[in-house]
């Protein structure tokens, strides 16, 4: 059994989708990040970066003690290796999937996250920051579009993989962030294909429970973090 410490956000959905794709049994443990639950000592013990999601595998492959994993890229690789799915075994195929997943982890996710922050959430609208992240997000959508037009199928080639599972939830924010997929036909085709997967729909349905308002308390918990607070 796997414990999924989770909130329904793009990073959370990567792992609920993966677990649904794998049909692995899992328990969802809600972490209300708007209420600051990501700072509880028991959560920090498995996710020292105070971010969701994280997993605890109660039946790790080595038969040892329960094993915890944080960071979505690391979780996706861990689960792919545990089950032998969504990460090819051959050197070239495996490297391509990991390259695109790392691209998502270091580029698409953080830049769309920052664009969302400055364009949608920040109380003060700073034109330079909004333009900077919007341009970078548009550039990354362009990179993804060229790749998907080239493969004609999935992000890293002919097969659906953890690269698709990493990228898809972030592209779901396109409308809210003011992008239209009509500008990116390769992304548009792929987006419809991935979204139609029943396992993706099942993963997205997990945890529609956390609907707390985005109020001053949430703003403080999520945007007021500083290193000194985490030390106490
Ligand atoms: N690089 C991390 C990012 C995780 C992340 O940013 N999670 C957000 C939700 S999408 C979170 O937990 N935010 C809580 C906070 O900001 O304290 C990963 O891929 O796991």
Question: How would you characterize this protein structure?
Answer:
The chain has helices spanning 10-22, 41-44, 72-83, 91-121, 127-151, 162-171, 185-195, 198-205, 216-223, 227-231, and strands at residues 2-6, 26-30, 54-57, 67-70. By secondary structure, the chain is of the alpha+beta class. The protein has a 4-stranded mixed β-sheet, with helices on one face. The model has no long low-confidence stretch (mean pLDDT 94). The longest helix has 31 residues, at 91-121. The protein is globular, with a radius of gyration of 18 Å. It folds into 2 domains: 2-85 and 204-231, Glutaredoxin (3-Layer(aba) Sandwich); 91-196, Up-down Bundle (Glutathione S-transferase Yfyf (Class Pi), Chain A, domain 2), CATH 1.20.1050. Helix content is 55%, strand content 8%. Helix 1 runs antiparallel to helix 6, helix 4 (91-121) runs antiparallel to helix 5 and helix 5 crosses helix 7. Glutathione (GSH) is lined by residues 9-11, 33, 38, 50-52, 71-72, 222.
């Amino acid at each position: 059994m796997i414990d999924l410490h989770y909130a329904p956000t793009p990073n959370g959905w990567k792992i609920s989708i993966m677990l649904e794709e794998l049909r692995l049994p899992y328990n969802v443990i809600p972490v209300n990040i708007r209420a600051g639950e990501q700072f509880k000592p028991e959560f920090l013990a498995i996710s020292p970066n105070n971010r969701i999601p994280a997993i605890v595998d109660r039946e790790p492959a080595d038969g040892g003690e329960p094993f915890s994993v944080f960071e979505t890229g690391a979780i996706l690789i861990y689960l792919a290796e545990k089950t032998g799915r969504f990460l090819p075994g051959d050197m070239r195929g495996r490297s391509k999937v990991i390259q695109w997943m790392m691209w998502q982890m270091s580029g698409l996710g953080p830049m769309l996250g920052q664009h969302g922050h400055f364009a949608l959430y920040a109380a003060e609208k700073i034109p330079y920051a909004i333009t900077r992240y919007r341009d970078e997000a548009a550039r990354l959508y362009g990179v993804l579009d060229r790749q998907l037009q080239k493969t004609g199928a999935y992000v890293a080639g002919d097969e659906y993989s953890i690269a698709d599972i990493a990228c898809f939830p972030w592209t779901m924010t396109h409308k809210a962030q003011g992008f239209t997929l009509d500008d990116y036909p390769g992304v548009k085709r792929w987006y419809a294909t991935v979204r139609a997967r029943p396992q993706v729909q099942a993963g997205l349905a997990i945890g529609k429970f956390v609907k707390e308002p985005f109020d001053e308390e949430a703003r403080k918990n999520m945007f007021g973090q500083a290193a000194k607070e985490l030390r106490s």
